[in-house]
TrEMBL record:
Lineage, opening ranks: Eukaryota, Metazoa, Chordata, Craniata, Vertebrata
PROSITE patterns: USP_1
One BP term from GO: protein deubiquitination
Keywords of the record: Cytoplasm, Hydrolase, Microtubule
Name listed for the protein in its UniProt record: CYLD hydrolase
Record's GO cellular component terms: microtubule; spindle
Amino acid sequence: PESFPPLRNEAAVRVLRGRMKGIQGHCNSCYMDAALFSLFSCTSVLDSMLFMPFPLCDRNVQGILRDEIVNPLRRTGFVRASSVMHLREQLTDKGQCSSFTNAEKDPEEFLNLIMQQILGIEPLLKLQSGGREQDCYCYQIFLDQQEDLVVPNVQQLVERSFLSSDLKLVQIPSCFIIQMPRFGKEYKMFSKILPSLELDITDLLLDSPRECCLCGDVATLEC
């Protein structure tokens, strides 16, 4: 099948900026549009989803994702709402949930359905909390109201969320999908969130050697 590489640097600006660019929204599709754009427009880290014959892989859904959404997005910078609706109809059939074609959903529900049940991909993240390990495909940031954060960046939100939930990454993930605390029609915790172009996960890793904040040597205790 024909394939197009992810957009980078000047090409990304040229192809994706302007009117009638991105993924066309229709009938509460924003959660899926944003997730698909984030996963595929400018990175190839999950391109295996488009080509590899995973054990449970539904080749029809894989073909729609690749040929009707990702390739047009990378080639012209625009995806029609009808293409996303075609995918939503297939997800409705596979997921035994009729509301995928018309209702607003949590992005995590969409990712779990397409990655686990339809394509059969191994979980991307291994987390530990209270001595228990859990596997998942994405991490959703949960925070209480943060009075001192007006316009936070992603690094701050991830670190505070892990700390408040007593979480650690068991291993360095091949892909770290993070859902921001800014979604839904009714409530936005932050008016804006600044993207962190690099994410330092040193302090989030389980049993990772870290430096002392006072002397700079390898730390032996954690506050």
